Amino acid sequence: MLQEFPEENIEALATGAWILGTGGGGNPYLSTLNLRRLYAEGARIQILQPDELEDDDMVAVVSGMGAPLVGQERLKDPRHMARAVELMEDYLGRPFRAIMALEIGGANALSPFLAAALLGRPVVNADCMGRAYPEAQMTSFAIGGLSMFPLSLVDVRDNEVIVTRAESWKWMEKVSRAVCTAVGSTAATCKAPRTGREVKDWGIHDTITQATELGRVVLEARARHDDPVAAVLDHAKGKQIFRGKIVDVDRTTTGGFLRGKTVIEGIDADRGATLELAFQNEWAVAFRNGEPVAMTPDLLCLLDSVSGSAIGTESVRYGQRVSVVALPAPEILTTPAGVAAVGPRAFGYDIDFKSVFK
Amino acid sequence: MKRIGIDVGGTNTDAVLIDGDKITASIKVPTTQDVMSGVKSALAHVAAHIGDTPRPLDAVMIGTTHFTNAVVERARLERVAAIRIALPTGASLPPMCDWPEDLYRAVDPMIFMVHGGHEYDGSPLVQMREDEIREAAMKIRDAGVTSVAISATFSPLTTECEDRAAEIVRSIIPEARITLSNSLGRIGLLERENVALLNASLQSLGRTTVQAFKTALAEIGLDAPFFLTQNDGTVALADVAAANPVFSFASGPTNSMRGAAFLTGLDDAMVVDVGGTTSDIGCLIGGFPREANNIVHIGGVRTLFRMPDLLPIALGGGTVVDPETGAIGPRSVGYRILHEARVFGGQTLTTSDIAVAAGMIEMGDPSLVRDLDPTFVHDTLARMRAMVAENFDQMKTSAEDVPLIAVGGGAFLIPDEVPGASEVLRVENAGVANALGAAMAQVSGEVDQVFSDMSREQALAAAETEARAAAVAAGADAGSLKVLEVEDIPIAYLPGGARRVRVRVIGDISFG
Q1: Residue numbers in A near B399 (CB within 8 A)
Q2: For residue B348, what are the domain limits?
């Protein structure tokens, strides 16, 4: 049964998605503005549960691709996200039953909503990361060994590209990234279409609801002047890794990643200790006094200790009072195949994955 | 060097006359309803001390809250037109799409979106459609609107589109006052455009305000060049500043920090400016306030431009203390403190009452707070100290202890010892710190751009050259320029080792 996504949930979804972005995925502010305007014009989004899909239904998987900085100048327009979906339908010769997010973390959590508002389709309550990751092979569909093609990519200037085949998920990432760069490092994409069966078997379910609920507890705690970080921990069954103050941020760009580390000096119970958070677009590994204590695929979230708002790897700055919180990863990411795709070694850290929840 | 500095605040108007680095005269008068009569009486007082020396007055520096107040009050703003050069991008988020409704109505904008703009690497997004700009300009002219804000994608990298559009608009509306977004803001189209539009809405007020100051100076018989102080602790010639009122938004707190630097002789320190309702904590680097590199909301509008990095705390001389729980603020009696605070015979317990009870300051009638439980007073003070300490620590840029300078009318609330502070300094003449800060102002130049296909060193050098040129263009003496800030951030995903570099240089005003 379809369920309407009420307007008052937009802010909660954006707040929760930004936390699940684990430092990356882009700030959802502009997407939120877009969705609010669509609602003001009368659009209403219907949410479809994954198990209500027919096995042979077709589902579009959408995301905005590119550099967040470019997105601050070339403002996202829902029409292009919708166009990427239509382009794929034209190519397939079949309509999509529904639209889903590639990643629930960051701005892309709202991407299916923008397309769905214009195309009158429902949004599936699922994604394929359960968080944010930078590359195409880092999805539950890739871990499941599903097909990685075709992919449609739409540029605002009437440039439309379909990548019809790719040898592997990594090649799909490489080829589509090259096209994205050529059109100015921002594009709307519709990833390899999925059947209803595939979404049921390999999608990460219920993540729209999870993000919305997570955002809601933060907003409510803030309104009550309660501790929003405690609310996050309680609601999402997370673990506090560290509490402190940012004393150093070191960023470099290599291989198309924003890499670096931020150093946090402990306060309260962590006084005297230092936590180093290494990142590659997203927070990847936390080292306490040099020892790895938490790592991907567990979700590492850096939250403002007072407001509970997420802090991104591009916006973290000296002096911020922060709480480092780990949230449990979707089960599939912690399987051996999952850890191979998104564990510490996938990001170049020679460490065995050890969950803080085991 | 003889200068007069004036700071027009919400409550008081301060003025000082300085000769070199000596204060020759100073005065503080209440800000009057009409503002200018207060300015005139303050000016007349210090001008009387210029004396008979052969050296004339070099400059008058004025800091004012006129423009911020207009935005906050949604008053005295004018109708504007927005031309954004960005299609086919951004159509769903037109200019001013995230403004508060009341401010949007007060500005009643005409909005146009046209084709053009650039990419992050400086290549054109699409061919700019000059015919669309011409058509917009004709509609603007026909509506009788003369203040126009122009924005374009990546205009901080290349100003070509905005410059050409301005030419076209001017050819159709010769009397147009045009604000280009690249001259004010940074990367982030919506935020930069917001700054440009706020600026456009203040054009008439900028002109009438500068004219009123000019008249006031003439009536006192002062004919020295006159400058308005800016957010970053520098000044601009009044006629130039009138075109960019947004650069005066935070001149009050900035002048107070600069004045604190002058009064203590410290160039690197933290400053806490304690007012009636709130305090601002800022950081002085090389004698200038550290800049905010994040979104700053002005009157409910998101902006990103040259503003000091200030951390407001809900702690001022009029902040209300709950007599049951001892909770501090955020409510304040503000300027009504003279009637409502206990020591002045009122019914409301304030932080000032606690300070009087603790013997930290003498004011009002101390017998009116004698009934307060000493333990309660002690605990409340401890909480105040913790508030200051935590916020102070948050603004520090290093783990080492640094000096903290306390200024403003409520400076007595700041304890003598603050964790993380090497010392807490209080200054004489703190009451006119703002006017002093204004009098001491210099000229700056800034560049904030994405550089690609060059080494980090080359990028930093290129940025510095451009910043120096900008400072000289703004009236700085080239020989006195020094680099104040360098910051660079590599940009994720972009090829060519792209990095965004921000460099700011500063120097003395070039006279003649």
Answers
A1: 247, 265
A2: 313-431
- Which member of A72, A257, A319 has the closest CB to residue B395? A319
Is residue B302 situated within a structural domain?
no
What is the set of domains in chain A, with CATH numbers?
3-207 (3.40.1610.10), 227-347 (2.40.390.10)
Token pair recorded at residue B447:
């560049």
| Residue bearing the bigger pLDDT, B231 or A12 | A12
A positions 296-315 inside 8 Å of B (CB):
314-315
Q: Which helix (H) or strand (E) holds A322?
A: strand A321-327
Asked if residue B227 belongs to a domain, the reply is yes
Q: Which residue among B403, B431, B459 closes a domain?
A: B431
B335 shares a domain with B324: yes
Model pLDDT for residues A260-292, shown as the tens digit of each residue? 899 999 988 898 999 999 998 899 999 999 999
Binary contact (B492, A66; C-beta < 8 A): no
Low-confidence ranges of chain B (pLDDT < 70): 52-55, 397-398, 490-496, 511-512
Helices B66-73 and B203-220, packing angle to 10 deg:
140
B425 and B354, same structural domain? yes
What residues contact A112, with CB distance under 8 A and at least 6 apart? A60, A62, A99, A100, A101, A123, A124
Question: What's the Cα-to-Cα distance from B332 to each of A176, B31, B65, rounded to whole Å?
Answer: 57, 21, 21
B416 shares a domain with B326: yes
- Per-residue pLDDT, B397: 67
Interface of A with B in 108-147 (CB under 8 A): none
Pairing of the two strands A126-127 and A160-163:
unpaired
Q: Which of B407, B431, B455 is the last residue of a domain?
A: B431
Among B153, B294, B489, beta carbon nearest to A73: B153
pLDDT recorded at residue A322: 93
pLDDT of residue A253: 63
> Is B491 part of the contact surface with chain A (CB cutoff 8 Å)?
yes
ipTM: 0.93
Question: What residue in A sits closest to B99 (Cα-Cα)?
Answer: A33
To the nearest whole angstrom, how far is the Cα of B375 from the nearest Cα of chain A? 25
pTM: 0.88
